[in-house]
Design brief:
The chain is α/β, with parallel strands linked by helices. The protein has an eight-stranded mixed β-sheet with strand order 1-2-4-3-5-8-6-7, with helices on both faces. Strands 15-12-11-17 form a four-stranded mixed β-sheet. A hairpin with a 7-residue loop joins β13 and β14. α3 crosses α11, α5 packs across α11 and α9 packs across α11. About 1% of the residues have low confidence.
């Protein structure tokens, strides 16, 4: 089984021509020293608490906001006009950890896709730039926030820097959000605005606490969609798929891409939405119905999170840069970059995939909407035993949006479909819902 999975992973990108694949060059340019400078600069603002100063040029969240905005502006100069920068500002009314109405600002950099149809398909990646010490409403204490979450912002900035000079079919949004420590306010505002504008967000990554080092990064993903209706849940319970929601497929995709480009750095899939008692900026996107995952280091040190800087009983507390591994953050940025680039260079995942249940048979009938994007080349059907955690088999089937798997019962396997581009890049897998077509009515005599 392990060998079979390894062979599948190695085969997924076998059709890519090395000379045509821009991702290795991007990954090579990611610079741990630059990440270290970003970390030190953000920590140097003293505190980035959401309630701290908005207009002090040297200290507080306003200074951090302006510096991040300037960094994105410099990055945009390399994009030949494809990247635009926005300060998304809104007033957050009093609520959890917000004692008075407070201005919050997300710093948003949009790298527009170059193909007319897939450009409306959007991938979002974030880190939060606010920080806190022991008390979330203490706006004056030193809150360096090196790991939580200057590390995530540094990874996002570095991914944006190496990706901006390149062209992608789909659109990528890089952002640093505020208000996370107060209650996910910045990401919630962005997600709600995107929903109101009917944006087609195909996937969202958040990087939160990604600096403590190691040889792996955790990717948290939910199996059953947060916004699923009771009827959809009833059907899922009847036929399976609790491990196959869009966010879980996204996590599998990231793990596959990570294995291909960084074989010595593990993407560790964690099959839950987030950690116990905690939550991150991917959750507002899940609530709006979009696939979203969280990147986080594998072994958190709670002495260095949400703590006043101090030494007590011989233990050093505080979220300081000296506790970080900048080469590790660079690898996290590489996984983000490889996955985002693969998604934005691939065709969109198949829509409205159905397993047809009209006939009792040992075959499995599948159908879905046709892909009309210019880069689309063909489809692949994938399958696995119901007890396997990842897809173990695949078959190229051409361009028709339907397939019958002969002598393979839908009762015995899980099936999925993905799209493959002319450049060899693959979409995430779409898991089918059951459909029982209505029998045609006999014509009246």
């Amino acid at each position: 089984m392990i060998l079979r999975r390894v062979l599948l992973l190695l085969s997924l990108h076998a059709t890519l021509l090395a000379a045509a694949d821009p991702i290795p060059a991007m990954l090579k340019k990611i610079d741990a020293k630059r990440i270290e400078r970003t970390e030190n600069t953000l920590v140097g603002f003293g505190t980035r608490n959401t309630l701290s100063s908005q207009d002090d040029p040297k200290r507080g969240i306003g200074a951090a906001r302006d510096w991040i905005y300037a960094q994105f502006q410099e990055i945009a100069k390399t994009s030949d006009g494809r990247m635009t920068i926005e300060l998304q500002t809104f007033e957050q009314q009093p609520g959890s950890r917000i004692p008075a109405a407070t201005k919050l600002t997300n710093v948003v950099a949009t790298l527009r896709g170059t193909q007319p149809e897939p450009a409306d398909r959007i991938y979002v990646v974030s880190g939060h730039y606010d920080s806190m010490c022991s008390r979330p409403t203490d706006a004056e204490c030193e809150a360096p926030g090196a790991d939580d979450d200057a590390s995530g912002v540094a990874a996002v900035l570095e991914s944006a820097r190496v990706m901006a000079p390149h062209t992608f079919d789909a659109t990528i949004v890089f952002m640093a959000v505020a208000g996370e420590e107060q209650g996910l306010y910045g990401s919630t505002y962005f997600a709600k605005q995107a929903k109101e504008k009917n944006w087609n967000i195909d996937a969202m990554f958040t990087n939160d606490i990604v600096g403590n080092g190691g040889t792996s990064v955790r990717v948290f993903s939910e199996g059953v969609p947060t916004n699923e209706t009771p009827e959809e849940t009833r059907i899922r319970h009847a036929v399976g798929g609790e491990n196959d929601g869009p966010s879980r497929q996204l996590a599998r995709y990231i793990a596959t891409v990570g294995h291909h480009y960084l074989p010595n750095f593990r993407v560790w899939m964690i099959n839950r939405r987030d950690r116990y008692l905690r939550g991150g900026d991917h959750i507002p996107f899940l609530e709006q119905g979009w696939p979203a995952v969280r990147f986080s280091e594998p072994h958190e040190n709670y002495h260095h999170q949400h703590q006043n800087v101090r030494t007590e009983n011989g233990i050093e507390y505080g979220d300081l840069p000296k506790f970080l591994d900048f080469a590790y953050i660079a690898n996290v940025a590489r996984v983000n970059t490889a996955a985002l680039a693969s998604l934005a260079l691939a065709p969109g995942r198949p829509k409205d995939v159905r397993v047809l249940t009209a006939r009792l048979t040992n075959d499995t009938d599948l159908q879905w909407e046709p892909n009309t994007e210019p880069n689309f080349d063909h489809y692949e059907v994938v399958w696995r035993d119901t007890t396997d955690p990842v897809w173990t088999h695949s078959k190229a089937i051409g361009r028709e949006p339907r397939y019958t798997a002969p002598e393979m019962s839908k009762d015995n396997y899980f099936f999925g479909v993905r799209a493959v581009g002319k450049n060899g890049f693959r979409s995430p897998v779409s898991y089918p819902k059951p459909l029982r077509p209505q029998r045609p009515q006999a014509a009246p005599q």
